[in-house]
């Protein structure tokens, strides 16, 4: 089955990319950051912590579901890469052709973008970008218009996918597969989360008769009763499958990625069990130190990736903290009352 995707899967896109002006390639090297895992999870965490009911009827449910969707997407990527185990384009190996007009720091940055190891199918950036931006467009259903949100999400996802081909770390087929996998994961994960738009049921999805209704009584909040728990658990299960495939194939790097996926799925599930889902936005005085702590845990998880156990523990702790954070203000308040 792995023969369905081969190492020689290019269709001539490299020649077209090589003809592009250098400044275009440099610009797309910056665009690719829009789907870096650290950027996406930071963006998702900010939305989850700070979104108000102007963005969604139940912003904490919406935000946690978006995180769960992207966690599922990365789990599928880990499985796909371990299963197909095909290399990236030759240009991703190096040496990098750095434009001579770039200053020193930008030269170092550019080289880091255009060199990449690991397997190439499907593209993690294309998958994660499609899943994240489409999920955000769907769950924050009170922002702008549905058509505008979806158009923006598609535009960013396609730009990120194109950037991966232009900087020559993926073939075109890799990013096309990533866009399809990302979009499919959004549909599947939102279905699991109970989104009535994908279940064909009552589109209100609310318990309160007045929540999610506009002034004319029309339904405006189909995501008000989302439950991200099943999607988090699915991500952990798929990641466990990816770990098994990676171990069988002797792919050490993919074992680590799958371990991070298991930890993220389980951490998200545990964190969600600690909140009610209707908490207000997290106060900045709590969010800032929490961001520093969770960020340090994430960095430590990757820095210590040679120790799978440490990576899994650090990742689990970071995700539990991110998802459970909305419950912390109330807990601190109760503690202060008890002490008084």
UniProtKB/TrEMBL annotation:
PANTHER family hit by this protein: AT30094P, SPHINGOSINE-1-PHOSPHATE PHOSPHOHYDROLASE
Domain of life the protein comes from: Archaea
InterPro entries tied to this protein: PAP2/HPO, PAP2/HPO_sf
Phosphatidic acid phosphatase type 2/haloperoxidase domain segment(s): 65-190
Pfam families hit by this protein: PAP2
Name of the protein this chain belongs to: Phosphoesterase PA-phosphatase related protein
TM regions (residue ranges): 23-50, 62-84, 119-138, 150-167, 173-193, 231-249, 255-275, 282-304, 310-332
Species in which this protein is naturally found: Halorubrum aidingense JCM 13560
UniProt keyword annotations, A-Z: Membrane, Transmembrane, Transmembrane helix
